[in-house]
Amino acid sequence: FCAVSIASVFRNKDIQWSLKTEKMQQQLFYTLLVQTIFPILFVCLPCGGIINFPLLGFGLNVFPNLVSASLTIYP
What we know:
The chain is an all-alpha fold. It contains three helices and no strands.
């Protein structure tokens, strides 16, 4: 929701941004996206996989090591 709201403000032609302000706001927006995507990739998805793989019939031989490695990469 926040990303869509921010993008719609940037696309609004009624607001006159200076070039420097627009560039800085775009950099902050990309930083926000990266700060959102990294925890999902390295924390939520591996932990969710560990919880859901046994329900889907997959074994857990390799995945516990992958989750511990992924959790150490993020912080």
